[in-house]
Amino acid sequence: IRKIGVLTSGGDAPGMNAAIRAVVRTAKYYDVDVVGIRKGYAGLIGGEIKEMHSRDVSNVLNLGGTILHTARCPEMMTDEGLDKAAAIYKILGLDALVVIGGDGSYRGLAELVKRGVNGVGIPATIDLDMKGTEYTIGFDTAVNTGMDALNKLRDTSNSHERCSVVEVMGRDAGYIAVWCGMCGGAEEVMFPEEKENINSDRVIQQILENRSIGKRHNLVVVAEGVGGTQKLAQDIQEITGIQTRATILGHLQRGGSPTATDRMHASMMGYHAVKAILEGRENIAVAYNRGRYEILDLLESLQMDKELDPEIYDVIKILSI
Ligand code: F6P
To answer: Where does ATP bind (predicted)?
Structure first.
């Protein structure tokens, strides 16, 4: 192994820089050349590539975002784009392409593997919705950001005896919502995995019951994938008579200095990715399961199970009486 490429792809996640740093420095430690590819697959196709050395990743461990920049790349949905990306990989003489990104980035990488690329995935998304791994880089920071927001909203909604409806990120998954709900002490959480049980009547009913047991304010967390946050706040106010305010946290949760947990996992995953490449492993995904780092087959990892534990919601309800 003489030369590897590294890129970040899809939505950025705090801790991506820690992973880039770990990939670059582990490779340099073992005398492997590294090129950084800007703006994800778009930069690969566009040839936005530069050599990276240990000093290029100084002072980035603590930074949110990604120093390599990122993009969502529609060209990776076409045969032409995929062929071009694979051709550039070969022209660059890369022995592996390390992709730090989420589910969509892994699926793009799987297509490149079919075209002869040695693809190596490091899981990074604030949403946590990646198969085969219990942990994804960025989730912990995003949840902490959401929890801080809930703490602040609790102050004001308690003072005014109001209800606060807070929308957190999570396009198809409720991990951020239920974690924020639990850690921020929410009375109710609405998340996509509930499917047919997603029901604003239930939330309103709960708020009325809470009033009857002496609760003076309510926090309701809604996952972005459920949506309808403003409307829910209006309905709560109209039906219960309790003043209600909606807050949509949006991209706030994607930024910020990564937590210790994100820095730790990102650093270890970056290290394990390069070690596995040096050991001759091909087409792999780094994962963290049951307290250990694992090297999975990339294509198999995409087929693995992943489910939000419904017990978390049950416990939120028990603890909010
Ligand atoms: O996948 C991470 C995520 O932050 C989702 O929670 C959200 O739905 C999406 O990205 C937003 O994407 P974009 O930044 O492209 O608008």
So the answer is: 11, 72-73, 102-105
Instruction: Say how many Å lie between the CA of residue 127 and the centre of ligand 1.
Output: 8
Would you mind telling me the total number of residues written for the chain in this entry? 321
Q: Give me ligand 1 centre to Cα 171, in Å.
A: 7
Q: pTM, whole model, 2 decimals?
A: 0.97
Task: Tell me the two tokens of residue 49.
Answer: 């590539």
Q: Strand, coil or helix: what is 244?
A: strand
Please give the number of the atom of ligand 1 that sits closest to the Cα of 224: 8
Res 13: pLDDT: 98
In short, whether 102's Cβ falls inside 6 Å of ligand 1 is yes
The residues, any chain, with a CB within 8 Å of residue 6's CB and separated by 6 or more, are 20, 23, 24, 34, 35, 36, 37, 52, 68, 97, 98, 99, 100
Residues 91-128 pLDDT 10s: 999 999 999 999 999 999 999 999 999 999 999 999 99
Say how far apart CA 301 and CA 298 lie, in whole Å.
Answer: 5
Coil, strand, or helix at residue 120? strand
Q: What is the C-alpha to C-alpha distance for residues 255 and 227, in angstroms, rounded to an integer?
A: 21
Sequence-ordered list of residues with C-beta below 8 angstroms from that of 279, at least 6 positions apart, any chain: none
Residue 198 is predicted with a pLDDT of 83
Ligand 1 pocket check for 225: Cβ under 6 Å: no
Instruction: Judge whether 317 and 202 are in contact, CB under 8 Å.
Output: no
Residues of the chain with pLDDT > 90, as a percent, come to 97
Query: What is the position in ligand 1's atom list of the atom closest to the CA of 225?
Result: 8
Measured in angstroms, how far is the CA atom of residue 283 from the centroid of ligand 1?
A: 26
Query: How many alpha carbons fall within 13 Å on the CB side of residue 210?
Result: 26
Residue 34: name the closest of 5, 69, 68 by CA. 5
67 and 60 in contact (C-beta within 8 Å)?
Answer: yes
Q: Is the CB of 254 under 6 A from ligand 1?
A: yes
Tell me the average pLDDT across 219-238: 96
